[in-house]
Amino acid sequence: MPVATRGMMRGVSHDRLRPMGTEMILSNAFHLFVRPGVESVQKLGGIHGMTAWDGPILTDSGGFQVFSMSDICKLHEDGVKVENPIRGGWIDWTPKMAFEVQASLRPDVSMVLDHCPAKPSERNEVAPAVERTLRWAKEQRDLHNARGGADSGQALFGIVQGGIFDDLRSECATGLREMDFDGYAIGGVSVGEAHAEMMTAVEASAAHLPENKVRYLMGVGTPIDLVESVARGVDLFDCVFPTRTGRFGTALTHNGRLHLLNAGFREDTNPIEPGCACPSCLSKVPRGAIRAGFQSKEINSSMLVAVHNLFFILQLMQRIRASIAEGSFEELRADIARVYRPRST
Ligand SMILES: [Zn+2]
């Protein structure tokens, strides 16, 4: 899922999404609640009207974002108080509120509010976060069922927390599974841990989730993380990684990352990746021109690379699906591991 946090893509125009192979996009309920506000989104036609996207949309509850602003949020047992970054004052972001805001925004998939602890390796922080996450999840599952469950036209996914601890991941996943959600997400990863630790957490979570429901890994999107998570049973991803790295001048290619600001590209007449079928490469704008554009802060350079990177990631997901169907996934996995080596710290 390409990410339109506030209903707007960054660095990629919305008309590019469909031709690039996008199937589903993601927005953030908390950010939309803050600006432009639920009523305004409703007047724009709900989240589908606002994003002009008629395919499936998932909204995140904003748990991760709220807790990542720990200097302006106060956790309590029934939710989290967070300073309103636009209007001032405090917002009491509770499970009920996260649920109701998403019911009003009308995405196809909504997410529970969970407690994503800042430090996934501190057991005395992670254990109570799992307890809270399960308690809040049940509250929201009950609200969801009272509204007709998935028949209401909106699915609700639970989120597995548990940091780097296998037993806590297992406890959280099993608890959520018993509540019978429409799908399941793995949260609290990609918060600065090493690749191997992330994969251990993914494995410990996915192993306890039902095989016949969607498994979604939140906020993860480098090529190696995608391939290795698919190998562990994950189906769905979102990440700002391809567009963000693109906006800063790094292109993802079949031969690895290309830092287009390097002096070696000054007079390079090739497109970002020769042979690539993305709109940026088809336009034949040379690497040298894109580099010069970055140096003079031209927005178009950022957009060209963001589009290429998003196309690369969407293509990678298509290649993964095809390779699974053809029985050649392990070859693709080895290819990606060779070119995109996992970070060790
Ligand atoms: Zn391209």
CATH superfamily of the largest domain: Queuine tRNA-ribosyltransferase-like
The secondary structure category is alpha/beta
| Helix run count | 14
As laid out across the biggest beta sheet, the strand order is 1-2-6-7-8-9-10
Summarize the amount of helix as a percent range: 40-55%
The averaged pLDDT comes out at 95
Summed up, the domain count is 2
Please state the CA-atom Rg, rounded to the nearest Å: 20 Å
Q: How much β-strand is present in the residues? A: 5-15%
Which small-molecule species are bound to the chains here?
zinc ion
Judging from the principal axes of the Cα atoms, what is the shape? globular
Sheet with the most strands, sense and barrel status: 7 strands, parallel
> What CATH architecture of the largest domain do you see?
Alpha-Beta Barrel
What is the CATH third-level topology name of the largest domain? TIM Barrel
Annotation, overall tally of beta strands: 12
The ordered string of helix (H) and strand (E) elements is EHHHEHEEEHEHEHEHEHEHEEHHHH
The N- and C-terminal alpha carbons lie at a distance of 26 Å
Assembly status = single chain
